[in-house]
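Render this sequence as a predicted structure.
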Amino acid sequence: MAANYRAACRARSKAEFIAKIGVVVEEADESAFWLEMIVDAGVLHKDKVTPLRIEANELTAIFVSSRKTAGRSSISNRQSSIGNSP
């Protein structure tokens, strides 16, 4: 997840950033999945894994929000400059 996020931060275009941050979302969600599997398989007790699952879900939400924000049109920025026209 971290390596993919770093790659997203170095994207050469907005479209590339959105695509790469999408991979980060997938990786964060996959991390949450594997943590659930660790508990279900009895490898670790739920109490040990719960803080990590919470963090993985929070990171997923953060990256989903970043992807949504990046995908929005910049129309709102252009509209704000209209009010400043002489």
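Summary. The CA atoms of residues 32 and 54 lie 8 Å apart. The chain has one domain: 2-71.
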